[in-house]
Structures are given as C-alpha cells and as structure tokens.
C-alpha cells in the first residue's frame, strides 16, 4: 500500500510540473516570439525551465521516497539509457560531419526517454 501512495504522490507532482511547463511554454512562445532579440526575449523564452526544475524536484523527491531496491533498479535503467543516448547522439555527430542534417539538442531527451522506456519494457518482459 505504501508504494501505491508514494507512486500516486509522485505522479501528481510530476504531472503538475509538466502542466506548469506546458503553460509556461505556451506563454513564452506567445509573448516571446514577437519581442526583439535581447535580454527580455531570452528571459521570456527560457521561462519554461521553471517547469523543468519542478519536474526534477519531483523526481528527486520520489527517488528519496522509494526503497533501496527500486532506487537501484531505476538507477541501472537510467545508466543504460544514458549510455545508449550517448552512443546514438555521438554517432549522429559523425553523420552530421558527413553531411546529414544538424539535429537540435531538443532531440536528446526524447532519445533518452525512449531508451529508458524500452529498457523498462525489456526488463519487465524478461523478468530481470
């Protein structure tokens, strides 16, 4: 029961942070796109980082709440996902040198998230 309660709390915190992120992202795009280049525009366009910081805060809180086994498995999954992400993004850097289109840094997190999801699914399917 304890795991269910802390899991629900985590989801509320995380999705609340994502909601803040989307709201700030929308506002920053609406109000920032027409501003001239300069500090005000930079500040307005960077304001969604507040939502990202809240998501990091929710993740850190959750990692402190879960037991050692869950923490260890989660850390293993993240480490493997980081290694896959590093190898894919590093390899693509060489392809860019060969003339492939440049890719935004915004691609890195989705690559890591998909890697992480696939690792979790494979571990569930193989019971590891």
Automatic annotation (TrEMBL):
**Keyword Transmembrane helix listed:** yes
Q: Which UniProt keywords apply?
A: Membrane, Transmembrane, Transmembrane helix
* Keyword presence, Membrane: yes
Locate the transmembrane regions by residue number: 12-31, 43-60, 72-94, 100-122
The protein depicted here goes by the name Uncharacterized protein
